[in-house]
Structures are given as C-alpha cells and as structure tokens.
Amino acid sequence: MNFWKTSPNAIAWVLGWGGIVVAVMLFWAFLFQPLVDARKDIGLRVAAAEKDYVWMLGASDRLKQLAPAGSAGTFDRAGKSLLALADQAAQEALLANAIQRMEPASDSRVNVWLERADFDQVAIWLEQMELRYGIRVESFQFDRSSQTGLVDGRLTLVDSVQ
Length: 162
Known about the structure:
162 residues, 4 helices, 4 strands, single chain, alpha+beta, 4-stranded antiparallel β-sheet
C-alpha cells in the first residue's frame, strides 16, 4: 500500500486504469466470449433439430399414405406355396445342395435343415425371401461346421403375409 502513496500520480493512474483494462479483457476472454460462442452453437443445433423435425413430419405423412396399401400386396408370389417359394429361393441362392430337408410344419411355417451351408449365402437367401416374398425367420439354430464359413443348422420360416 505504501507504493501507491509514494508513487507519482501518473504511475498510479496508469497502473489503476491498466488493471481495470486487464480485468475487463480477462472477463471478456474467459467469461463473456465463451458464453456468446456457446449460445451461437446452441442456436445452430436447435435450427438443425427443427429442420430434422420438419423432415420427420413429412416422412411420417408419407408413411401414413403408404400404410393403407399394406405389405401383402407388394409380394409377387405367383400363387406358390411357402414351401415352393422357399425351395425356389434356395436354388437361386445356390443352397440347393446344402438343404438336407425341408418340410411344412403348417400352412404358414416351414422347417429347413442345412448342412455345410455357406453362411453368407444363407444370409442372402433369408434376406431375399423377406424382401421378395415376405417370408421371415421365426427361429434358427446354427452350429459351426469344420470348414470356415460353413454352418449346419435348422431354421423355421414363417409366412408374414398370412
């Protein structure tokens, strides 16, 4: 405190105002500007979320328009049974040799036994049956075969259209 009493007025004045300027700059740099930047960032995120919301509303309306048509009318089955469709799709997926047995469990279910089937081909086969015919997997059990990429297993296919 003695420094202020013994210093010339000009030095005390410069140091006092300099301290105030430094305090304002520190306030600006460490408090005010980060708050302004955070507010701007939040505003951008809100705008993006609002844009996404508007898009979702439009997509929702479009889905509601498509819903009455249903998925049953979109599958071209040519009057074939579930068993015939599964067999045809298996042959197209090159799985005919891997299928050991295929038997109907009911009108809307088919059990399939596979041996030494290429897992990738099985996945493609199941996906194609779901997309083209509306046939989905109800249950499955696969075990690794002795060769890499091959599986043995049993699965139950169910007709989702009926």
